[in-house]
Amino acid sequence: MDVNKKDLGAQLAYAALDDVPTPKSDAKEIVGLVKNSGRITGYQLSDGSTVSKEEGVAMAKAGDIQGVGVAHRKDSEYLKSLPDGTENNNLGNLPSVSG
Questions:
Q1: Does the pTM exceed 0.90?
Q2: How far is residue 45's CA from residue 48's CA, in Å, rounded to a whole number?
Q3: Which of 20, 48, 86, 88 is most exposed by smallest CB count within 10 Å?
Q4: What burial letters (b/e) apply to 46-70, b meaning 16+ CB within 10 Å?
Q5: Neighbouring residues of 98: CB distance < 8 A, sequence distance ≥ 6
Q6: How many CA atoms, within 13 angstroms, populate the side-chain half-sphere of residue 53?
Q7: Euclidean distance between CA atoms 61 and 58, whole angstroms
Q8: Which candidate, 83, 77, 87, 35, places its Cα nearest to that of 56?
Q9: What pLDDT sits at residue 85?
């Protein structure tokens, strides 16, 4: 893929987000997904804690989670990975963990 297509893909990904919060210097990363019947219900953070999907959105908006933006579907907000050129840290590629 040439650079222009990558740039366009990143621009489209950012355009789909409602908010791209600025992370604080001590912001955590999402390292796992808590799922129930295949649906994401929460996130495991780099400090080992787990938070609900709603708590994760609030934390991201406050700058406490890095590498994500906030999007919505109908009346529900959720987190999406920010494009950074690597696939292994995309939320969809993270392991499922128990909440």
A1: no
A2: 5
A3: 88
A4: eeeebbebeebbebbeeebbbbbbb
A5: 34
A6: 16
A7: 5
A8: 77
A9: 74
Q: Would you call 80 exposed, middle or buried from its count of C-beta atoms within 10 A (0-12, 13-18, 19+)?
A: buried
Q: For residue 18, what pLDDT is reported?
A: 85
For 4, the enclosing helix (H) or strand (E) is helix 3-15
Of the candidates 93, 80, 94, which has an alpha carbon nearest to the alpha carbon of residue 10? 80
Cβ contact 67:81 at 8 Å: yes
Polymer length in residues for the chain: 99
Q: How confident is the model at residue 1 (pLDDT cuts 50, 70, 90)?
A: very low
* AA letter at 74: K
Structural contact between residues 70 and 57, judged by C-beta atoms closer than 8 angstroms: yes
pLDDT digits (tens, 9 = 90+) for 14-72: 777 888 899 999 999 999 999 998 899 999 999 999 999 999 999 999 999 999 999 99
